[in-house]
Amino acid sequence: MRTSKQHRTFKDALYAEFAVVGKALANAHRLELLDLLAQGERSVEELAQQTAQSLANTSAHLQVLRRARLVEAEKRGLHVVYRLAAPEVFQLWRALRDLGRARLAEVERLAESFFTDRSALVSIDKEELLRQIAADAVTVLDVRPATEYHQGHILNARSIPVAELEQRLAELPRDRAVVAYCRGPYCVFADEAVEILRRHGFQAQRLQDGFPEWQADGYPIAAASGPQESSRREAGREHAWLSEGERDRYADSPVRR
CA-to-CA distance for 82 and 62, rounded, in angstroms? Predict the structure, then answer.
C-alpha cells in the first residue's frame, strides 16, 4: 500500500507535467503561433513575418511549444518547418479561446471595437453552408493566402486571397450567393471580402467560423492531394464526399442534430 508521502510525490509530479502545457500556453505570442499553425505548417521565417516578431523570438517561442509537445518540427533544406503536433492541440487552443470569450468581458469589447461593422454583415453557420454546398447553391470562397488554401480548404471552395479579390471579381458567377471564409472568428479577411463583394453587387455572406473549425468538426475538406474523407462527430453524419445521393438527401431535408 502506498504511503501518503508517495501519493503526494506522485500528485506533485503529475500536475507539474500538466503545468508544462499550461506554461507553454501562457503567452500571447505563442497562442498566435498556434492559431497560425492551425491553418497549416509554416517555416520559422513565415511565422516571424506573420506575427511581426524577430526570428530569434519566434524560434524561442516555438521551442517552448515544442518542449510541451504541442508542435513538431522538420528540417527541410535551410528551413525548419513547424506544424501542430496533433488535432487535439487545436481543440485545446479553441477551448481556451472560447472560454476567454465567454468569461472575459474584455475579449468581446476588443472584438466589437475592432470589427465595428460586423453586425451589418450577414453570416452563415457551418451546417447551413453544408446544406447549400450539397444543393450546389453557393460559391464558397477561401480568402486566406493561397499557401493556406493549398494545405487544406473546404471542399469545392475556390481560392482568391482577399488582397487579389477586387481584381479577380470576373472569376465569380453573379447568379449565386458567395460565402467567404478565412482563418477563424477573429480573422478579418472574410469581413473585408464580403464588404468588397457587396460593394460590387454580389450577394455575399461570411462563414462564422474558419477553416480550422470546419475541419475539426468533421466537415468535408480537400487539400492539394484531393478530397479527404472526414468523419462527423455523431454516427450517421458522414458526408465528406457528398455523392449524388447525399446531395439530394441533404438538399431536401434538414441535417440531423
Answer: 8
Q: Write down the pTM of the prediction.
A: 0.82
Does the structural domain 120-250 have CATH classification 3.30.450.40? no
CATH 3.30.70.1290, applies to 4-88: no
Query: What pLDDT was estimated at residue 117?
Result: 67
Q: Are 239 and 232 in contact (CB under 8 A)?
A: yes
Could you state, in order of their start, the residue ranges of all structural domains in the chain?
4-88, 120-250
Residues 56, 167 contacting (CB under 8 angstroms):
no
Three-state SS annotation for 120-187: HCCEECHHHHHHHHHCCCEEEEECCCHHHHHHCEECCCEECCHHHHHHCHHHCCCCCEEEEECCCCCC
Active site residues: 182
Low-confidence ranges of the chain (pLDDT < 50): 226-227, 229-241, 243-257
- How far, in Å, CA of 139 to CA of 171, rounded? 11
Number of H helices, E strands in the chain: 11, 11
Cβ atoms of residues 238 and 231 within 8 Å: yes
How far is Cα 40 from Cα 223, in angstroms, rounded to an integer?
11
